[in-house]
Design a protein that fits this description.
CATH topology: Pnp Oxidase, Chain A
CATH architecture: Roll
Largest sheet: 8 strands, antiparallel
CATH class: Mainly Beta
Structural class: alpha+beta
Distance between the termini: 5 Å
Order of helices and strands: EHEEEEHEHHEEEHE
Helix content: 10-25%
Number of strands: 10
Shape: globular
Radius of gyration: 15 Å
CATH superfamily: Electron Transport, Fmn-binding Protein, Chain A
């Protein structure tokens, strides 16, 4: 694995993100991954921060909130089917990783693993989270993205390790 400084690959990571990345969380021996297409990378509080958003009804949300950490694996190769599967199924229904043939490898600094194989990985410790509020959101965005009122929680993760395999 090649260690990379988090901001060396920010542009590539953000360009790939709309096509999908794996957000993985783990707690009490349960590991789950889901597909994300939104996020940002930048500086908050003088720290490198990767932000992700997860709806509270997602299985991953509970694992992430309980553990206080997450990993993001941005694939280099063609994992369109795996991303589609992990984005359309719930971890409550079964082991998505096994179902689509994905494996994990241990994180370098966190207990949460990363998705094995060619990709760019970020290991993040949650330093803040907040729920989007209807009153503070542009009404057009609220109507288009949250017709059921199921607003995302935004998790701010300090990037503790970033590397490519």
């Amino acid at each position: 694995m090649l260690e990379v400084i988090w901001d060396e690959r920010t542009r590539a990571a953000l360009e790939q993100l709309p096509a999908g990345a794996f957000l993985t969380a783990a707690h009490d021996g349960v590991v789950n991954t889901m597909t994300i297409g939104w996020g940002s990378i930048g500086i908050f509080w003088g720290k490198p921060i990767l932000t992700v958003v997860v709806r509270p009804q997602r299985f991953t949300h509970g694992l992430l909130a309980a553990s206080g950490e997450f990993t993001v694996s941005i694939p280099h190769g063609d994992l369109v089917e795996e991303l589609a599967y992990c984005g359309s199924r719930s971890g409550r229904e079964g082991d998505k990783l096994a179902a689509c043939g994905l494996t994990t490898q241990p994180g370098r600094v966190l207990a949460t693993p990363v998705i094995a194989g060619g990709g760019l990985h970020f290991e993040c410790r949650v330093v803040h989270s907040q729920v989007f509020e209807a009153a503070r959101l542009d009404p057009a965005i609220a109507a288009a993205c949250y017709p059921g009122g199921d607003f995302h929680t935004q998790f701010f993760g300090e990037i503790l390790a970033s590397y490519s395999d």
